Amino acid sequence: RSGEGWDWVGSHIRPRVRVPAEWGWPVGVSLSGEVGYQRRVFAEDEWTVEIRPIIDLKTGLFYLSVNPVVDQALKGPDRRLAFSPDAKVSVDVTPEVSAGFEYYGSFGPVDHFISAREQQHQLVPAVDLNISPEWEINFGVCFGLTPATDHLIAKLILGRRFGG
Question: Which of 45, 61, 99, 144 would suit a FRET pair with 76, their CA atoms being 20 to 30 Å apart?
Fold first, then answer.
């Protein structure tokens, strides 16, 4: 927050399952569920849950992903189901490093989107470090695009892959 320096906002856990590559589908399809905690000082919704369908495509050096996310507050003032789409496009710079842009949005409740000024939209220049098949490392700096969006957030995803 402006003038207050850096601080920890919260944490999320996101298990994910995917269609096996051996099935030969033309795009990747997976589903993740997430439970998240945000400190009350940073968000009205302390506890949230989301369902994240993921459709992605890796072709040559390029990666594209679309996530039509629905989420809901478990503890907070507005517990309606909301639409919060995300997307990503990146390119392999080296076999270990990918760089690109991510988008995170929040349109509000699925039964009645909020006004454009109240919606949250972020653009994120981001880097993926592909140093191991067992680990996911992604970081970036989020820039808010609307008045309702936090103007600057640093993000880090450190994920452990299990299974195939």
Answer: 144
